[in-house]
C-alpha cells in the first residue's frame, strides 16, 4: 500500500517522539512491503518563529493532500507566561482541527498489565481498565465567541452547541460502543448548563436507535471522581470539548504515564494522529521523552488504513518491550532506556517478528472510520 503522510513535529519533545514514530513506520513499511511518503510541515511555536504564523497556509495544504497527519506536540513556555501574546502556538492546533473538520477526538485508555504497579492508583482498583473517550473537538467554549469589555475589566467565552454537532460525534461513540462492551456514558453538567441539557436530550433521542447500548448520564464533577475511584466501570465515554480535554488527561494518569496514550482526531477529511501529552519543554533535547504514545498513535493510523496486521505488530512490539522493562524515565526513574533506544527496540522487534494472526479481541478495530 502507498500512503502519503503529513508529519508535523511541532514543539518541545514533539520532534523527538515523531522521529521514533517514523522509525517504527519505516520498520512496518519494510516488513510488510508498504510505501509511506512523508511530507514535513511547520506548526506551533516552531512555525511562529520561522513564519510568524502558528499554522502557515502551506501546512494546511500539505495536510489536506495527505492520507493522514502525524502530529507531535505544541506549546512553548515563553507564551504560557504571557497572557497578552497576540499569537499563541496552540492556535495552530485549534485552527488545524477546524480547517480539517476534525470533530471527534478519540482517546483510548487501556492499562498495560506489566505496568499496573506504576499507576499512582491501587492496583485492585484499576485492573481491567479499558475505556475510550470520544471528545467533541471543534465546538463548545473552545470555539465560541470570545472577548473583553471596552474597559477590559471583564471577559467572556461563549459555549454553544448545535444538535448536528452533537449527533455526528455521538453516532461515532454509539457505533464504537456497539463494537465494544455496549456501554456509553455521557459526561455533562446538565444540572447547570443549557448546552449540556441539549447534549442529554440529543443523546437520549439517539439512544433509541441503539437499544442494545446501556446509556448512563454522569455530571462531570461526579465523573471526575468515578474515573479515579473505579475506572474499570467505563467503556465508551462521550463528552463535549472542554470536559473531554480535562477528563482525558485525568484518565491518562491511571495507566502510569501520560506518555503512553495515543489519540486519533477524525471528521470530514484527513484524520490526525497524535500523542495526548503536550510539548514537555523541560525534557526537550534530552532524549528522555516517552515515544510510546506517538508510536501507538501510528498504530491507530494504520488501523484507519485498514492495516490491522501492521497495527497489531506495533502493539505486540510495544507490549514486549514494555514487559521486558525497556521503558523511559517517566515509568522508571532508576532503570530506563532513552527515547531513541525505545524507538530502536520497537522497530527492531517489528522487523524481527513473524507476522502473526490478528487478535481482534482487544483492538480498537472498527473504532475508527476507515479513510
Ligand atoms: C489537547 C491539548 C489542546 C487542547 C491544547 C494544546 C490546545 O490540551 O489536545 O488536549 O486543549 O485541546
Ligand atoms: Mg489537553
Structural key phrases:
Isopropylmalate Dehydrogenase; 2 domains; alpha/beta; two-stranded antiparallel ribbon; single chain; 371 residues; binds 3-isopropylmalic acid; 41% helix; globular; binds magnesium ion; 10-stranded mixed sheet
Descriptive overview:
With 371 residues, the chain is α/β, with parallel strands linked by helices. The protein folds into two domains: 1-110 and 258-371, Isopropylmalate Dehydrogenase, CATH 3.40.718; 120-255, Isopropylmalate Dehydrogenase (3-Layer(aba) Sandwich), CATH 3.40.718.10. The protein is 41% helix and 18% strand. It has 13 helices and twelve strands. The chain has helices at residues 14-32, 44-51, 57-65, 77-80, 89-99, 123-126, 163-179, 194-207, 220-229, 241-252, 292-304, 308-323, 339-352, and strands at residues 2-10, 35-40, 68-73, 104-110, 130-136, 146-148, 155-157, 183-188, 214-219, 236-239, 262-266, 271-275. The strands form two sheets. Strands 2-1-3-12-11-4-5-10-8-9 form a ten-stranded mixed β-sheet, with helices on both faces. Strand 6 and strand 7 form a beta hairpin. Helix 1 (14-32) crosses helix 11 (292-304) and helix 11 (292-304) runs antiparallel to helix 12. The protein is globular. Mean pLDDT is 93; it is low at 359-366.
Looking at the structure, the CATH topology of the largest domain is: Isopropylmalate Dehydrogenase
Supply the helix-strand structural class: alpha/beta
How large is the share of residues in beta strands? 15-25%
CATH hierarchy class name of the largest domain: Alpha Beta
Q: State mean pLDDT (0 to 100 scale).
A: 93
Number of domains: 2
Global geometry? globular
CATH-defined architecture of the largest domain: 3-Layer(aba) Sandwich
Distance between the first and last residues' Cα:
13 Å
Specify the helix fraction band: 40-55%
Q: Identify the CATH homologous superfamily of the largest domain.
A: Isopropylmalate Dehydrogenase
Amino acid at each position: 500500500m502507498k500512503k502519503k503522510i503529513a508529519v508535523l513535529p511541532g514543539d518541545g519533545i514533539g520532534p523527538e517522539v515523531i522521529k521514533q514514530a517514523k522509525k517504527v513506520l519505516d520498520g512496518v513499511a519494510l516488513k510488510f512491503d508498504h510505501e509511506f511518503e512523508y511530507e514535513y510541515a511547520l506548526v506551533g511555536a516552531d512555525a511562529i518563529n520561522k513564519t510568524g504564523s502558528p499554522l502557515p497556509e502551506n501546512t494546511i495544504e500539505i495536510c489536506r493532500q495527505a492520507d493522514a497527519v502525524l502530529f507531535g506536540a505544541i506549546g512553548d513556555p515563553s507564551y504560557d507566561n504571557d497572557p497578552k501574546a497576540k499569537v499563541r502556538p496552540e492556535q495552530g492546533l485549534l485552527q488545524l482541527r477546524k480547517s480539517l473538520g476534525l470533530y471527534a477526538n478519540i482517546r483510548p485508555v487501556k492499562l498495560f498489565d506489566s505496568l499496573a504497579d506504576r499507576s499512582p492508583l491501587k492496583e485492585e482498583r484499576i485492573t481491567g481498565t479499558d475505556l475510550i473517550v470520544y471528545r467533541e473537538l471543534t465546538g463548545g467554549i473552545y470555539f465560541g465567541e470570545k472577548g473583553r469589555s471596552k474597559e477590559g475589566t471583564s471577559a467572556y467565552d461563549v459555549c454553544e452547541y448545535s444538535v448536528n454537532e452533537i449527533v455526528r460525534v455521538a453516532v461515532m461513540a454509539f457505533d464504537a460502543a456497539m463494537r465494544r462492551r455496549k456501554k456509553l456514558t455521557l459526561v455533562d453538567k446538565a444540572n447547570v448548563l443549557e448546552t449540556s441539557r441539549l447534549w442529554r436530550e440529543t443523546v437520549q433521542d439517539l439512544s433509541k436507535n441503539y437499544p442494545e447500548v446501556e446509556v448512563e448520564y454522569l455530571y462531570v464533577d461526579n465523573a471526575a471522581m468515578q474515573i479515579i475511584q473505579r475506572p474499570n466501570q467505563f467503556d465508551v465515554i462521550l463528552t463535549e470539548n472542554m470536559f473531554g480535554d480535562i477528563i482525558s488527561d485525568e484518565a491518562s494518569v491511571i495507566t502510569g504515564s501520560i506518555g503512553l496514550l495515543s489519540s486519533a482526531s477524525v471528521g470530514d477529511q484527513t484524520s490526525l494522529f497524535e500523542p495526548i501529552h503536550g510539548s514537555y519543554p523541560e525534557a526537550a533535547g534530552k532524549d528522555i521523552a516517552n515515544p510510546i504514545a506517538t508510536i501507538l498513535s501510528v498504530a491507530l493510523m494504520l488501523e484507519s488504513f485498514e492495516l490491522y496486521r501492521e497495527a497489531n505488530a506495533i502493539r505486540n512490539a510495544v507490549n514486549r518491550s514494555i514487559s521486558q522493562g525497556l521503558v523511559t524515565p517517566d515509568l522508571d526513574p532508576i532503570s530506563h532506556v532513552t527515547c531513541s533506544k525505545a524507538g530502536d527496540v520497537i522497530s527492531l522487534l517489528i522487523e524481527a517478528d513473524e507476522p502473526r494472526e490478528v487478535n481482534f479481541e482487544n483492538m480498537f478495530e472498527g473504532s475508527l472510520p476507515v479513510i
